[in-house]
Amino acid sequence: MQKLTELSSWKALEAHFEQIKDVHMRDLFEQDASQSESRFKKFSTQMDDILLDFSKNRINDETFRLLCDLAKEADVEQWRDQMYSGEPINISEFRPVLHTALRNRSNSPVYVDGENVMPKINRVLAQIRYFTERVRGGHLRGYSGHLITDVVNIGIGGSDLGPHVVCDSMKPYAQRGMNVHFVSNVDPTHLTEILKSVKPESTLFIISSKTFTTQETMLNAHSARQWFVELTGNEKAVARHFVAVTVNKKSATEFGILEENMFEFWDWVGGRYSLWSAIGLPIALYLGMDHFEELLDGAHAMDMHFKSAPIEKNMPVILALLGIWYNNFFDAQSHAVMAYNQYLRRLPAYLQQLDMESNGKTINREGERVDYLTGPIIWGETGSNCQHAFFQLFHQGTKPVPVDFLIPAQSKNPLGEQHCVLLSNYFAQTRALMRGKTEAEARAELEEAGYAADMIEEVLPHKIFEGNKPTNSILFKNLDPRTLGALLAMYEHKVFVQGVIWNINSFDQWGVEYGKQLASEIQQELAAREQTSSYDDSTNELINYCMSLKFSD
Ligand code: G6Q
């Protein structure tokens, strides 16, 4: 592939950036007000009831045209089609990338090595339905006849964050009397605190691990098993209370899990893209299979939009292009996501893995070091909490931070006028960030507030807001399973498009593997409880000091 920075659209964007970098969005809005097509009309798009308004960005018609040219010149559409059709686009692990097949509700064939994978996807979905309906309906009970009231998912990274964000966000759809818990951290506190709140006879443990070798998950799984056997005194009952989601059936069998309680997925499903597979088992147990399928339906609808909408109206492509505009031209180091919805409080954690594990890369697909910025730092909080914490930096700080603002029009818990106030804050913030407050406006406010003339001169500089801070507004009717599925798929595809344009492989994670390898070396030294001199001076001294503090096992 031609080098990104040598593409003609890239060069044109560089030249265009010099012209537009100091233009204020206030002026862009004013200029567009006299045009036949309004700025909102030009710079907004919709998929189902999800509206993306991207008009509050530092773009004009020319910027948008050039960004769309970039997507075309970087072959985004061809890469997308290769992904959907099962080409091995994960080039460092030699695999296809087929999370879209997991939610392919059209059931059209998808081939991997000449085999249509849809029948096996459908078989696992049917297995999940059968199992979850029996548990939820009280037909499949604990070893002593108790109803299953608690599901504990033991998994980390991709085997935790996806199902976790969905279960948290979809709480209003959960079956009464069914609780779900997520244990991920190898810190023993995580498991211990959760076990305090459940009873063995009514708890179902899901060991979620693609590889079934991840140290944290295996340790937590064995500790949970030990706790279970100690409290019940019934080793045989493990088979009734532990199920596995994995591609590694052999290790799951060795753990004591029955074949019928294993839920399979495949190596062409990446960990952070796996919530749509059997990794979604806790979702189906907590929300019911119908709701899990609605989530898949929503993701599929977004897949179809991504596949067929023209670039100029394609939501994930537009989000990706705008991200590149700020990342590579304005040098924005981070991208923030503010969901004005308490149920979405885990969204930033999920997106951090999705985006930063996918696009935190410096080597391009040809194996060379890139000479431009790739994936940004992703972070976020729920609104309106964020306004009372770090929004000050957005309004008056020196760092550019593009922000996505999400909100449902309807609340699941209407209470007086509270949702209306939440909405008002949502609209007010993006408007304020776009417009800022001029010196004249600030002065007029101070005068109206009765400030003395000398006081006005003193405080005036502090009351001015530069504005021109870019935001995307994502507004939808309701936070239901279908919409959530579509939103998560939208971000997946955004990340994919950016990876294609940056010419990196978004589907490996060698940094994660490196972390796994490093810790196991040091763990052996720690277990020996002897002074070490194996590492650098800092690491040696830290380990030896920790020894002197008599650390816990
Ligand atoms: C995700 C990563 C990583 C992975 C975890 C858990 O894309 O590969 O976060 O999901 O390391 O791995 P296992 O599911 O194999 O335990």
Task: Compile the SSE list and pairings.
Elements: H1 8-20, H2 25-33, H3 39-42, E1 44-47, E2 50-53, H4 61-73, H5 76-84, H6 99-102, E3 111-112, E4 115-116, H7 118-136, E5 150-154, H8 161-169, E6 179-183, H9 188-195, E7 203-208, H10 215-232, H11 238-241, E8 242-246, H12 249-255, E9 262-264, H13 281-287, H14 289-308, H15 315-329, E10 334-339, H16 347-359, E11 377-382, H17 391-396, E12 403-408, H18 418-435, H19 439-448, H20 453-459, E13 471-476, H21 481-502, H22 510-528, H23 537-548
Parallel strand pairs: 5-6, 5-7, 7-8, 8-9, 10-11, 10-12, 12-13
Antiparallel strand pairs: 1-2, 2-13, 3-4
Helix pairs in contact: 1-4, 4-15, 7-13, 8-13, 8-16, 13-14, 14-21, 15-21, 16-21
Bound molecules: glucose-6-phosphate.
Glucose-6-phosphate (G6Q) binds next to loops.
Work out the radius of gyration: 26 Å
Largest sheet geometry = 6 strands, mixed
Protein structure class: alpha/beta
Indicate the proportion of strand residues. Answer: 5-15%
Biggest β-sheet: strands ordered side by side in the sheet:
1-2-13-12-10-11
Total DSSP E strands: 13
For this entry, give a set of tags.
553 residues, alpha/beta, six-stranded mixed beta sheet, five-stranded parallel beta sheet, 23 helices, 48% helix, 11% strand, globular, binds glucose-6-phosphate
Describe it.
There is one protein chain. The chain is 48% helix and 11% strand. The protein has helices at residues 8-20, 25-33, 39-42, 61-73, 76-84, 99-102, 118-136, 161-169, 188-195, 215-232, 238-241, 249-255, 281-287, 289-308, 315-329, 347-359, 391-396, 418-435, 439-448, 453-459, 481-502, 510-528, 537-548, and strands spanning 44-47, 50-53, 111-112, 115-116, 150-154, 179-183, 203-208, 242-246, 262-264, 334-339, 377-382, 403-408, 471-476. The strands form three sheets. A six-stranded mixed beta sheet has the order 1-2-13-12-10-11, sandwiched between helices. A five-stranded parallel beta sheet has the order 6-5-7-8-9, sandwiched between helices. It has a two-stranded antiparallel sheet with strand order 3-4. Helix 12 (249-255) links the parallel strand 8 (242-246) and strand 9. Helix 8 (161-169) packs parallel to helix 13. The model has no long low-confidence stretch (mean pLDDT 97). The protein binds glucose-6-phosphate. Glucose-6-phosphate (G6Q) binds next to loops.
